[in-house]
UniProtKB/TrEMBL annotation:
One of its GO terms (molecular function) is protein-N-terminal glutamine amidohydrolase activity. This is Protein N-terminal glutamine amidohydrolase. Its EC number is 3.5.1.122. It comes from Saitoella complicata (strain BCRC 22490 / CBS 7301 / JCM 7358 / NBRC 10748 / NRRL Y-17804). Gene3D superfamilies: Protein N-terminal glutamine amidohydrolase, alpha beta roll. Keywords: Hydrolase. Mediates the side-chain deamidation of N-terminal glutamine residues to glutamate, an important step in N-end rule pathway of protein degradation. Conversion of the resulting N-terminal glutamine to glutamate renders the protein susceptible to arginylation, polyubiquitination and degradation as specified by the N-end rule. Does not act on substrates with internal or C-terminal glutamine and does not act on non-glutamine residues in any position. It comes from the Eukaryota.
Amino acid sequence: MLLRKEDIIYTPFYCEENVYNLARTIAEKNPAEINSIYVVFLSNSQQTVPVWFMRLNEDRSGYPVIWDYHVFLVYKTTSGSYVYDFDTTLPFPTLFEAHYEATFAPEVELPERFHRLFRIIPAVEYLKHFASDRSHMFVTAYTEGHRPIATEEGEVEITHAVAATHQHVSPDDPSRYKQPPPPYPTSTCKSTQANLIRGMAKWLMNRDIIDCSRY
């Protein structure tokens, strides 16, 4: 499946919409492939998940960015699976195994508050049900703190790591996006009273999930 990152609408800090646009492009241009496409969400109850090799922290790739959530796409083939991640410094796409090893650093021992939970959604379902009114982007979305320090034992103290958070506030002033929103209206992504993104942490916790907390 040949897709260039430059051909997909991309907006920094809106990974869920970037992946939606990617999945929609695949459905339109390669409809036979859509059943081989999956959308992966990761978060946890604290909304603190460390992710390495992020463009946001490109100058310090040895350290993670702490996201409240992250979203990427996986294309499954008979010869292997490929990850399409708009926010990584890794190639687009990257083999699943290589992306996993670099992005999630499984050799690093993480405090429990940084354990990650993953939910895998068929792209067909994602395209059918995704909704976001972007109200989670009305407040500060990026705060830079101290960098984490790796010990000789391989453990990492991430208490003051780079933090990239999306916190919800009352939507009284919808023009106050901390990060510029995508160039299309929210209706493109089926904006409704239901906001999948705002309730995602609870959604991840309360449904069947792939528990990768040991990573």
